[in-house]
Write a sequence for this structure.
């Protein structure tokens, strides 16, 4: 049984239940139960129509739960056995689910968890493992999230930008468990791109594909980080690169620029360079200027300073860096890099050591410590 | 979302706040203190922020490698216990501000007379996973 194929049916099935009048939280539980049942019974008896099977079983589970609830409250039958006929599930249902799971009333962590379960079809156990928290904690986080959005009408319009932020978080932040979060984020973004025609959705998909293409080259065999300039580019996945570039070009042709398209354009310029030295840094700086204009983000200004250092030399990079808030994480790491390029190894070594002490993750800290050690040992 | 370690030290109860050591409290006060800790952990599970927590025995041993083929050297326990760790809790919080707020709540655990003991807790962020997109 193809797990990913089955999970791709989840948003549609959930959409049908909600259209038939089930409340979102109960429908979501019912779909999860149907998935568990599918795992047990499909290997021996694969259904001809997997989606129809899931709808039937999930609806039955929903009715059972509703009846049990009704009995508990000693009420009379509340729900008709005959499912009301509803419109055929459409791309709109899927889109509404994305909006609901990324609703602005949710914290980022709750939106991520709810999206992975209700849209992605992952189990609570898998999501808990991916974020290194106990299953009970994740179960509570998800049910609180469902309660938070329970009053939101599923057909109320949402903002694609909030959905994109959640998918970006899934792609960019998470540990590696038995669920490949980056691959899952790409799958969910593809599915979203099929449901809505929006250049920024395409931009985010392109960004993910172009970064995912470098995955094999990004870590050494000992697990340490390999910086972009030192990656073995022959290990980049050329199929993902060309797909990412195609998706991006189609989006850019729409002439509705947004931050994800610009980030993807920068990643595409890196993908296009046969070596670090071949990189078109001048064009990358221009894209960063665009990105500063679009976002005003200090992190973008920091990354821009790196690009300026490559395009116009380390002095220009340091001048650009002087304009950036030095409290930012990675500010010292960038300063160290530019000072070393400028020939000031002593300052660079000191800054690398300071940067290591401020790093937010162990891989980056170890990398920065090695840089300081390399400069100090000569 | 980031994980934080909250470290509870033995010293804080006896030193910083004129609070008698726990063995001089009434049994009910001890029970109320422990119940507060358990309730706090249960509340964090319910809010989706609890990761793990344990209490530690006060007596520890220092251990050090002593060369090939030799048993490790051990030392201690030491009478000087002011920096001993009494227990720890790991939380998964949305922000640093939220982590500080939760540590403050834990520090309000009741002591003698049911008053908050206001012990110092040490809050340490975990080093997380590296982000994929950095440029």
């Amino acid at each position: 049984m193809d797990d990913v194929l089955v999970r791709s049916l989840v948003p549609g099935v959930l959409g049908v239940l909600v259209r038939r009048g089930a409340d979102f939280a109960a429908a979501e539980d019912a779909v999860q139960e149907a998935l568990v049942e599918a795992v047990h019974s499909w290997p021996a008896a694969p259904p001809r129509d997997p989606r129809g099977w899931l709808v039937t079983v999930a609806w039955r589970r929903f009715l059972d739960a509703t009846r049990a609830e009704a009995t508990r409250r000693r009420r009379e039958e509340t729900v008709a056995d005959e499912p009301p006929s509803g419109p055929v599930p459409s791309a709109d249902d899927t889109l509404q689910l994305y909006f609901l799971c990324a609703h602005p009333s949710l914290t980022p962590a709750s939106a991520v968890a709810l999206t992975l379960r209700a849209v992605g079809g992952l189990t609570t156990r898998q999501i808990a493992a991916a974020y290194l928290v106990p299953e009970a904690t994740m179960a509570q986080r998800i049910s609180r999230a469902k309660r938070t959005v329970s009053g939101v009408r599923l057909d109320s319009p949402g903002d694609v930008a909030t959905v994109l932020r959640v998918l970006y978080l899934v792609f960019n932040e998470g540990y590696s468990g038995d669920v490949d979060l980056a691959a899952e984020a790409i799958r969910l973004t593809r599915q979203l791109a099929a449901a809505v025609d929006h250049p920024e959705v395409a931009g985010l998909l392109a960004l993910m594909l172009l970064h995912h293409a470098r995955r094999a080259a990004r870590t050494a065999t000992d697990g340490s980080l390999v910086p972009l300039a030192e990656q073995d580019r022959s290990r980049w996945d050329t199929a993902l690169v060309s797909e990412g570039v195609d998706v991006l070009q189609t989006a850019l042709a729409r002439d509705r620029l947004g931050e994800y398209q610009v980030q993807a354009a920068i990643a595409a310029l890196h993908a296009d360079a046969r070596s670090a030295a071949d990189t078109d840094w001048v064009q990358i700086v221009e894209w960063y200027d665009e990105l500063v204009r679009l976002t005003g983000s200090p992190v973008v200004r920091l990354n821009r300073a790196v690009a300026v250092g490559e395009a116009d030399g380390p002095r220009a990079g340091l001048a650009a860096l002087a304009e950036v808030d030095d409290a930012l994480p990675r500010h010292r790491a960038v300063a160290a890099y530019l000072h070393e390029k400028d020939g000031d190894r002593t300052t660079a070594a000191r800054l690398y050591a300071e940067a290591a002490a401020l790093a937010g993750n162990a891989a980056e800290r170890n990398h920065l410590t090695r840089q300081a050690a390399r400069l100090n040992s000569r | 979302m980031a994980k934080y370690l909250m470290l509870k030290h033995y010293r804080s109860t006896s030193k910083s706040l004129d609070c008698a050591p726990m063995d001089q409290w009434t049994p009910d006060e001890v029970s109320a203190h422990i119940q507060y800790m358990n309730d706090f952990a249960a509340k964090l599970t319910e809010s989706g922020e609890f990761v793990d927590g344990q209490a530690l025995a006060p007596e520890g041993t220092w251990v050090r490698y002593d060369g090939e083929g030799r048993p490790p050297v051990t030392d201690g326990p030491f009478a000087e216990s002011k920096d001993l760790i009494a227990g720890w809790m790991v939380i998964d919080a949305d922000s640093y501000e939220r982590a500080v707020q939760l540590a403050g709540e834990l520090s309000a655990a009741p002591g003698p007379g049911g008053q908050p003991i206001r012990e110092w807790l040490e809050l340490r962020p975990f080093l997380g996973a590296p982000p994929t997109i950095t440029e």
Observations:
- Residues 90-178 of chain A form a domain with the Arc Repressor Mutant, subunit A fold (CATH 1.10.10).
- Chain A touches chain B at residues 107-110, 112-113, 131-134, 136-138, 140-142, 144, 171-176, 182, 207, 211, 218, 225, 228, 263, 266-267, 270, 303, 306, 330, 359-365 (CB under 8 Å).
- Residues 75-85 of chain A have pLDDT under 50 and may be disordered.
- Chain A has 20 helices and no strands.
